[in-house]
Amino acid sequence: MGKKHSEVQISSKIGLASLCLCIVAMLLFSFSGGANSGAEILIGLILSLSCVGAAVSLHEKISPAGVIFLIALGAVRMLTPVFFSARVDCAVVSVSVVLSFLYAIVCFLRFFIRNKHNDMLEAFLSVGFGFLFLMTAADGVLSRVHSVEGLSQLPFLVVAAVLGLAAGILLLWKGRREPLKSDRKGRFKSPWVAGLVAFLSVTVTVFLVCNLLGTMMNYAFDTSEGKPLEMQVTAKQIDVHRKGPRDYELSFGAIRVDVPSDVYDRAKVGDVFLFYYHEGAFGIPYYELSQEYYE
Hints:
The protein is α+β, with helices and mostly antiparallel strands. It has a domain at 227-294. Helices cover 64% and strands 14% of the residues. It has helices spanning 2-31, 37-57, 64-83, 86-114, 117-144, 153-177, 191-220, 261-266, and strands at 145-147, 180-181, 188-189, 227-232, 235-240, 246-252, 255-258, 272-278, 286-289. Helix 4 packs antiparallel against helix 5 (117-144).
Protein backbone atom coordinates (compact mmCIF):
# COMPACT_ATOMS: atom_id res chain seq x y z
CA MET A 1 0.00 0.00 0.00
CA GLY A 2 2.83 2.38 0.91
CA LYS A 3 4.68 1.50 -2.29
CA LYS A 4 1.54 2.15 -4.34
CA HIS A 5 1.02 5.49 -2.64
CA SER A 6 4.65 6.40 -3.29
CA GLU A 7 4.27 5.55 -7.00
CA VAL A 8 1.16 7.74 -7.21
CA GLN A 9 3.03 10.63 -5.59
CA ILE A 10 5.94 10.24 -8.01
CA SER A 11 3.57 10.14 -10.99
CA SER A 12 1.79 13.26 -9.72
CA LYS A 13 5.10 15.10 -9.36
CA ILE A 14 6.19 14.07 -12.85
CA GLY A 15 2.83 15.21 -14.23
CA LEU A 16 3.13 18.56 -12.47
CA ALA A 17 6.69 18.98 -13.73
CA SER A 18 5.49 18.18 -17.28
CA LEU A 19 2.78 20.82 -17.04
CA CYS A 20 5.31 23.37 -15.75
CA LEU A 21 7.70 22.53 -18.60
CA CYS A 22 4.90 22.99 -21.09
CA ILE A 23 4.10 26.43 -19.63
CA VAL A 24 7.80 27.39 -19.70
CA ALA A 25 8.03 26.33 -23.35
CA MET A 26 5.04 28.45 -24.34
CA LEU A 27 6.42 31.44 -22.41
CA LEU A 28 9.72 31.09 -24.25
CA PHE A 29 7.80 30.82 -27.51
CA SER A 30 5.93 34.04 -26.69
CA PHE A 31 9.03 36.00 -25.70
CA SER A 32 11.50 34.75 -28.31
CA GLY A 33 11.72 36.07 -31.85
CA GLY A 34 10.60 33.83 -34.70
CA ALA A 35 14.07 33.99 -36.26
CA ASN A 36 15.84 32.82 -33.10
CA SER A 37 17.02 29.30 -33.98
CA GLY A 38 18.56 28.71 -30.53
CA ALA A 39 15.23 29.44 -28.87
CA GLU A 40 13.46 27.14 -31.34
CA ILE A 41 15.70 24.22 -30.36
CA LEU A 42 15.29 24.94 -26.65
CA ILE A 43 11.49 25.16 -26.97
CA GLY A 44 11.43 21.87 -28.89
CA LEU A 45 13.52 20.16 -26.21
CA ILE A 46 11.34 21.45 -23.36
CA LEU A 47 8.11 20.43 -25.11
CA SER A 48 9.60 16.99 -25.77
CA LEU A 49 10.44 16.52 -22.09
CA SER A 50 6.92 17.65 -21.23
CA CYS A 51 5.45 15.10 -23.66
CA VAL A 52 7.56 12.24 -22.25
CA GLY A 53 6.76 13.32 -18.68
CA ALA A 54 3.02 13.33 -19.41
CA ALA A 55 3.25 9.80 -20.81
CA VAL A 56 5.15 8.55 -17.74
CA SER A 57 2.87 10.24 -15.21
CA LEU A 58 -0.33 9.02 -16.91
CA HIS A 59 0.86 5.52 -17.80
CA GLU A 60 -1.86 3.94 -15.64
CA LYS A 61 -4.67 6.01 -17.21
CA ILE A 62 -3.82 5.65 -20.88
CA SER A 63 -3.11 2.56 -22.95
CA PRO A 64 0.44 1.12 -23.34
CA ALA A 65 0.26 2.06 -27.02
CA GLY A 66 -0.48 5.65 -26.01
CA VAL A 67 2.49 5.73 -23.63
CA ILE A 68 4.84 4.38 -26.32
CA PHE A 69 3.44 6.79 -28.91
CA LEU A 70 3.87 9.88 -26.71
CA ILE A 71 7.39 8.88 -25.63
CA ALA A 72 8.38 8.23 -29.27
CA LEU A 73 6.80 11.54 -30.31
CA GLY A 74 8.74 13.43 -27.65
CA ALA A 75 12.02 11.63 -28.39
CA VAL A 76 11.84 12.35 -32.12
CA ARG A 77 10.96 16.00 -31.54
CA MET A 78 13.86 16.26 -29.11
CA LEU A 79 16.51 14.87 -31.47
CA THR A 80 15.65 16.24 -34.92
CA PRO A 81 16.24 19.99 -34.33
CA VAL A 82 19.63 19.23 -32.77
CA PHE A 83 21.02 16.88 -35.43
CA PHE A 84 19.22 17.87 -38.63
CA SER A 85 18.59 20.95 -40.76
CA ALA A 86 15.53 23.17 -40.42
CA ARG A 87 13.94 21.58 -43.52
CA VAL A 88 14.35 18.03 -42.20
CA ASP A 89 13.09 19.13 -38.79
CA CYS A 90 9.96 20.61 -40.44
CA ALA A 91 9.38 17.37 -42.35
CA VAL A 92 9.65 15.31 -39.15
CA VAL A 93 7.30 17.67 -37.29
CA SER A 94 4.80 17.53 -40.16
CA VAL A 95 4.75 13.73 -40.17
CA SER A 96 4.54 13.66 -36.35
CA VAL A 97 1.54 15.99 -36.37
CA VAL A 98 -0.27 13.91 -39.00
CA LEU A 99 0.37 10.75 -36.96
CA SER A 100 -0.78 12.53 -33.79
CA PHE A 101 -4.13 13.45 -35.31
CA LEU A 102 -4.59 10.02 -36.88
CA TYR A 103 -3.90 8.40 -33.50
CA ALA A 104 -6.36 10.82 -31.87
CA ILE A 105 -9.03 9.71 -34.35
CA VAL A 106 -8.33 6.07 -33.41
CA CYS A 107 -8.70 6.95 -29.70
CA PHE A 108 -11.90 8.87 -30.42
CA LEU A 109 -13.42 5.89 -32.25
CA ARG A 110 -12.20 3.57 -29.51
CA PHE A 111 -14.07 5.73 -27.01
CA PHE A 112 -17.34 5.00 -28.79
CA ILE A 113 -16.65 1.26 -28.81
CA ARG A 114 -15.35 0.80 -25.26
CA ASN A 115 -16.98 3.84 -23.59
CA LYS A 116 -13.84 4.54 -21.53
CA HIS A 117 -13.17 8.20 -20.85
CA ASN A 118 -9.43 7.49 -20.69
CA ASP A 119 -9.55 7.06 -24.47
CA MET A 120 -10.68 10.68 -24.77
CA LEU A 121 -7.82 11.75 -22.47
CA GLU A 122 -5.41 9.92 -24.75
CA ALA A 123 -6.91 11.64 -27.81
CA PHE A 124 -6.62 15.09 -26.21
CA LEU A 125 -2.98 14.46 -25.23
CA SER A 126 -2.12 13.38 -28.76
CA VAL A 127 -3.85 16.36 -30.37
CA GLY A 128 -2.53 18.81 -27.77
CA PHE A 129 1.14 17.93 -28.13
CA GLY A 130 0.82 17.58 -31.90
CA PHE A 131 -0.66 21.09 -32.10
CA LEU A 132 2.02 22.57 -29.80
CA PHE A 133 4.79 20.95 -31.84
CA LEU A 134 3.28 22.29 -35.05
CA MET A 135 2.68 25.82 -33.77
CA THR A 136 6.19 26.28 -32.36
CA ALA A 137 7.92 24.77 -35.42
CA ALA A 138 5.77 26.65 -37.95
CA ASP A 139 6.65 30.03 -36.43
CA GLY A 140 10.28 29.65 -37.45
CA VAL A 141 9.35 28.64 -41.00
CA LEU A 142 6.83 31.44 -41.49
CA SER A 143 9.35 34.05 -40.32
CA ARG A 144 11.93 33.04 -42.96
CA VAL A 145 9.78 32.04 -45.92
CA HIS A 146 7.66 34.34 -48.09
CA SER A 147 5.10 32.54 -50.24
CA VAL A 148 4.37 34.09 -53.62
CA GLU A 149 0.73 33.09 -53.22
CA GLY A 150 -1.27 31.75 -50.28
CA LEU A 151 -2.72 28.29 -49.88
CA SER A 152 -6.32 27.86 -50.96
CA GLN A 153 -8.51 27.96 -47.84
CA LEU A 154 -11.59 26.23 -49.28
CA PRO A 155 -10.29 22.61 -49.24
CA PHE A 156 -9.13 23.05 -45.64
CA LEU A 157 -12.47 24.50 -44.62
CA VAL A 158 -14.38 21.64 -46.25
CA VAL A 159 -12.20 18.97 -44.61
CA ALA A 160 -12.47 20.70 -41.21
CA ALA A 161 -16.25 21.07 -41.49
CA VAL A 162 -16.74 17.42 -42.54
CA LEU A 163 -14.60 16.09 -39.66
CA GLY A 164 -16.27 18.47 -37.20
CA LEU A 165 -19.73 17.44 -38.37
CA ALA A 166 -18.81 13.76 -38.10
CA ALA A 167 -17.50 14.25 -34.54
CA GLY A 168 -20.59 16.23 -33.53
CA ILE A 169 -23.02 13.66 -34.97
CA LEU A 170 -21.18 10.75 -33.34
CA LEU A 171 -21.18 12.44 -29.93
CA LEU A 172 -24.84 13.41 -30.31
CA TRP A 173 -25.74 9.85 -31.29
CA LYS A 174 -23.81 8.43 -28.33
CA GLY A 175 -25.38 10.93 -25.93
CA ARG A 176 -28.87 10.00 -27.12
CA ARG A 177 -28.16 6.31 -26.51
CA GLU A 178 -26.56 6.73 -23.09
CA PRO A 179 -26.10 9.85 -20.87
CA LEU A 180 -22.75 11.65 -21.05
CA LYS A 181 -21.17 12.41 -17.68
CA SER A 182 -19.64 15.87 -17.51
CA ASP A 183 -17.69 15.62 -14.25
CA ARG A 184 -16.69 13.31 -11.39
CA LYS A 185 -19.83 14.15 -9.44
CA GLY A 186 -21.86 12.27 -11.99
CA ARG A 187 -23.75 15.23 -13.41
CA PHE A 188 -24.90 14.86 -16.98
CA LYS A 189 -24.74 17.26 -19.91
CA SER A 190 -27.04 17.66 -22.90
CA PRO A 191 -25.96 15.56 -25.92
CA TRP A 192 -26.89 18.53 -28.15
CA VAL A 193 -24.46 20.77 -26.29
CA ALA A 194 -21.77 18.08 -26.42
CA GLY A 195 -22.34 17.61 -30.16
CA LEU A 196 -22.17 21.37 -30.84
CA VAL A 197 -18.99 21.76 -28.79
CA ALA A 198 -17.41 18.81 -30.61
CA PHE A 199 -18.38 20.26 -34.01
CA LEU A 200 -16.97 23.73 -33.28
CA SER A 201 -13.79 22.59 -31.54
CA VAL A 202 -12.90 19.96 -34.16
CA THR A 203 -13.70 22.28 -37.09
CA VAL A 204 -11.63 25.20 -35.77
CA THR A 205 -8.70 23.00 -34.68
CA VAL A 206 -8.51 21.06 -37.96
CA PHE A 207 -8.78 24.26 -40.03
CA LEU A 208 -5.92 25.93 -38.14
CA VAL A 209 -3.78 22.80 -38.27
CA CYS A 210 -4.35 22.32 -42.02
CA ASN A 211 -3.27 25.89 -42.73
CA LEU A 212 -0.06 25.65 -40.73
CA LEU A 213 0.64 22.09 -41.85
CA GLY A 214 0.08 22.96 -45.52
CA THR A 215 2.60 25.80 -45.37
CA MET A 216 5.14 23.66 -43.53
CA MET A 217 4.80 20.67 -45.86
CA ASN A 218 5.05 22.89 -48.94
CA TYR A 219 8.44 23.96 -47.54
CA ALA A 220 9.61 20.74 -45.86
CA PHE A 221 9.01 18.33 -48.75
CA ASP A 222 10.11 20.68 -51.51
CA THR A 223 12.88 19.03 -53.55
CA SER A 224 13.29 21.79 -56.14
CA GLU A 225 16.72 23.36 -56.44
CA GLY A 226 16.59 26.93 -55.20
CA LYS A 227 17.45 29.65 -57.71
CA PRO A 228 19.70 32.28 -56.08
CA LEU A 229 18.43 35.84 -56.28
CA GLU A 230 19.89 39.04 -54.87
CA MET A 231 17.46 41.61 -53.48
CA GLN A 232 17.93 45.05 -52.00
CA VAL A 233 16.61 46.13 -48.62
CA THR A 234 13.88 48.70 -49.20
CA ALA A 235 12.74 49.28 -45.61
CA LYS A 236 13.38 48.30 -41.99
CA GLN A 237 10.75 47.90 -39.31
CA ILE A 238 10.57 46.77 -35.69
CA ASP A 239 7.23 45.39 -34.53
CA VAL A 240 6.88 45.96 -30.80
CA HIS A 241 4.32 43.79 -29.03
CA ARG A 242 2.73 44.69 -25.71
CA LYS A 243 3.60 41.27 -24.32
CA GLY A 244 6.31 39.45 -26.15
CA PRO A 245 9.44 39.99 -28.24
CA ARG A 246 10.28 42.55 -30.84
CA ASP A 247 10.14 41.32 -34.42
CA TYR A 248 13.01 42.66 -36.51
CA GLU A 249 11.71 42.84 -40.05
CA LEU A 250 13.41 43.67 -43.34
CA SER A 251 11.44 44.51 -46.47
CA PHE A 252 12.60 43.69 -49.97
CA GLY A 253 9.85 45.27 -52.02
CA ALA A 254 6.76 43.13 -51.47
CA ILE A 255 8.79 40.50 -49.59
CA ARG A 256 9.06 40.86 -45.80
CA VAL A 257 11.03 38.52 -43.54
CA ASP A 258 12.07 38.40 -39.89
CA VAL A 259 15.77 38.36 -39.11
CA PRO A 260 17.88 38.15 -35.94
CA SER A 261 18.47 41.47 -34.17
CA ASP A 262 22.20 41.57 -35.03
CA VAL A 263 21.46 41.14 -38.75
CA TYR A 264 18.82 43.85 -38.51
CA ASP A 265 21.26 46.27 -36.81
CA ARG A 266 23.92 45.77 -39.51
CA ALA A 267 21.51 46.00 -42.45
CA LYS A 268 20.99 49.30 -44.25
CA VAL A 269 18.50 50.33 -46.90
CA GLY A 270 20.09 49.46 -50.23
CA ASP A 271 22.10 46.50 -48.90
CA VAL A 272 21.90 43.32 -50.97
CA PHE A 273 20.74 40.03 -49.41
CA LEU A 274 20.75 36.56 -50.93
CA PHE A 275 17.44 34.75 -51.42
CA TYR A 276 16.50 31.43 -52.98
CA TYR A 277 13.42 30.97 -55.14
CA HIS A 278 11.74 27.54 -54.75
CA GLU A 279 8.82 25.95 -56.61
CA GLY A 280 7.30 24.41 -53.46
CA ALA A 281 6.19 20.82 -52.87
CA PHE A 282 2.54 21.72 -53.69
CA GLY A 283 3.43 24.00 -56.58
CA ILE A 284 3.20 27.14 -54.41
CA PRO A 285 6.42 29.12 -55.01
CA TYR A 286 8.20 30.86 -52.16
CA TYR A 287 11.30 32.93 -51.45
CA GLU A 288 13.64 31.85 -48.66
CA LEU A 289 16.28 34.08 -47.13
CA SER A 290 19.65 32.34 -47.12
CA GLN A 291 20.33 30.29 -44.01
CA GLU A 292 23.68 32.04 -43.47
CA TYR A 293 21.87 35.05 -41.95
CA TYR A 294 20.43 32.90 -39.13
CA GLU A 295 23.66 31.23 -38.07
